[in-house]
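dumping this here before i forget
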Amino acid sequence: MKEKAMEKEKPIDFEHILNVYKPLDVALIKSILEANEIVYFVQGEQFSTLHGGLMGVPMRVLVRGDQKEIALELLKDFK
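structure:
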């Protein structure tokens, strides 16, 4: 029993699926992913917000590796 408690969980493998430049698009993408129970992470979201939504700085959307194909299909209109 003690051995099981000491086992570490396997880290989540995230894969980059697209770059987004507009905070409004990020909000919509997050809503779509959450509605479909896709595990995601938006890299650079806080940086962009701090700097007034700079259009030249992309926010990178990453999803769990085993959900990548589903996420790409859901977000195909954002490419």
